[in-house]
User: Fold this.
Amino acid sequence: MRKTTRRRFSRRGVSGLLSAIFLFAMLFTTGAAYILFVTDSQFKMQDTAEAALDREIQRMGEAARVNTSKLSSNHLGVSITNIGTAPIQVKQILIIDGSGSLLKNIQPTPAVTLNPLTMTAPSVNTTVTVQEDANYTVKVVTDRGSLFSAVYPPETSSNMTSIAVSVVSSEIAKSIGSIAMDTTTLQYSQDNGVTWNQGWSVLGGQATVWRVNVTNQSHRDIYLGKQSDFFFLKIITGVGGGGLSPMAFYIVKNPSGTTYPELDSNFLANGGVMVPANGTATKTLYLKIDGPGSGSAQSLDSNTKYLSTLELFGKYDSVTSTAYYGQSLPFVGVLTHS
Assistant:
């Protein structure tokens, strides 16, 4: 009997050990599977977060300038220039009238893809007929969700495109000299004055004309002469040290269409550019030529930074006066050229 009992106890001990082993194996397998599941889920979440972050970084690199115009067909035209650092793909072009109603939802097929520093050529024909005295808003949507807008007729205010530049306020100019410049009106054209753009993202290697509004705060009329210019200093970096390289856009007379008559040294012959006294009127200055007598339009180099200032020279009171005027406006900006 005692022997039989001992055998029964031995079998029970082996059965308990096997049960414990099986239980441990089940727990280990289940736990390992759960850990693998959680780890895999975390990796997938991390990949999703990284993809979302990468997409957001790319979206932040998107920047575009939208220009509107009336085409020869009397349709509204839209031109898009990629002035950012990332390629953009135009998903939609929305045309909205002055009452806020959607006139057109254009989904380009194939999609319009613009690499940095490229633009749509020719302009996109929206087929929306431009009505007299009507206003239109154009909204361009990219595949990453960025939104860029413009209006027709084009605005000339500072709200059209933000000027990404460090500027000494033109308010200072009013207390240092006769002429003050309104920095918010500074614009450039690369089609000889047909279209004017605001901002510092200028396409490289293209003939450029500048314009800006000024007022004369003194009690004497000022006649600006040929040496007045919009002066740029190119910041040079690289092996062997850096430096500055000068460049100037010289003043011209008010345009006749797309023609800009040059000034010469004879005030009596051409009268210079007169800025009326006492701030009675705003004068728009145009600056274009490479140098007095050259007749050519200056262009800026690509991917270059410039320091800029406006330098004015002329005479007080009349073109025959011997009272000479000179001023360098305290407007200094850093231009990152595209």
Notes: The two ends are 102 Å apart (CA to CA).
